[in-house]
Protein 1
Amino acid sequence: MSKNKGYDPIALSEKTERIVVDGNRRKYVQLGRPLRFYGGTTSATEVGCNLRCKFCFSDQPVWNPKNTGRFYSPQEVFDGLTASARKYGHTLISASASEGTIGLDHLFELLDLVENSEFIYILETNGLNIGADPSIAKRLSGYERVHVRVSIKGASEEEFHKLTGADPEAYDLAYKALSLLIEQGVSCNACLMASFSDADGVEKVRRRLAGVAPGILKSLEIERIKQFPKVRSRLQKYGLKANKGVSCVSPEIIATDA
């Protein structure tokens, strides 16, 4: 990473893991609530992220992980997700509001449980840890009931840095993650946070993704923020103004093996 241009998200992952992971247990706020995405998903709320996005809705799980949530084992998380998913008739389960690749022992034990169930697990990630460590994509390739959703923060290195405060060089890791996942045959898709991007920036991302694998454009999500009061206050603090547009477009999950 470059010097004096922002924090290192990979180093922040390691620091955060020491706070939100204890053995195979990870911190969560809750273990199952219904969401509308992908036609209906049951999601737990994780604690701990490796980015500090200025538009983030998550609040305490990201900004105050030490004093937020409690530790749960993979079995407890799976049981909570299962109970809620069956109640609402969902086949898709996930954990959201933080970074899904923090605490790999916990994650892969959870995926072991999902693999022997009727559910598909949506791994929500910014992709940075996967891009920095190819072994994660390789391990994920051993699972058939996981889909990885990689959220790209902004349309360029400069925009990424402006929105997250992180080293701009880390921006490339999301694209590397997608390349590694596709190379390993892992079902995945990309989601672009475009609330602060112009049309040229979005098109630039589309061209770059096409260079990774043309088929990935079929499942690309264009995401725009919802301005909850705390989000609006934070944007005002940093002098950021979001573009107007529709909220997140959630396509059906498809494997991106093109």
Protein 2
Amino acid sequence: MIALKDSPAALVLAGTRPGGDPFARSLGVEHKGLIDLAGTTLLERVVSALRDAGIERIAVSCDVGPVADLARALDTEVLYAGSGPSESVGSAFDTLGAPLLLTTCDHALLRPEWVRELIEKTPDVADLSVMMAERSVVERALPSARRTYIRFSDGEWSGCNLFYLRTADASNAIDVWAKVEADRKRPWLIAARLGVPTLFQMLLRRLSLSEGLARLGSRIGIRASLVAASDGLAAVDVDKLEDLVAVQEILRQRKSATTGESI
């Protein structure tokens, strides 16, 4: 196995929403990470992809219960989730340190090459990088995809739930994330924290995504970089039934192409 640049650890977010996850419950399980996809849970698929990418230290942020039990069975570290994503990541960052790759347990199609792409394409001067996929790339990979896009001067972009906290200074972004979560019902405070001029230019599509990330990073004291996904499927996660059906079809087609069998 080829060694990864910087030898990062990885964190898989698998916390439980307040009140639980209605989608998971509709499928008869307590958590999305436990959803079965072609005989394998979503959490196991994510952990396997990270290992195949060459990451040796993997932790799962979750609550006490079946997800934690599964994480231990997969030979990963269990870090108990905080009250929100930012608290979970902040606590894990204190434990695991930098560099740290961050993803989610519902990234059902996660591929080792996407993990390597994010890490290898992150500039050596960056403190943090984010993988995002441009709309045309997503729709070329999955024409039926219904994602949320953010418009910039260089296109419409969708997040891929893949982040790389390369240096210790990336903790600044976690601190701001926590403040944004706290201010989610007071958008004017969020705008003030992130910089009204930059947000205004982003809304008017006067900035490219790379420029917007760089400016926001500068605002909070880090060097932030974009890594554009080469595969639009990197932007596909499993949040609802239609996502699960689409992913099942993708896997069916892959297996049919390689073995001539259906799932």
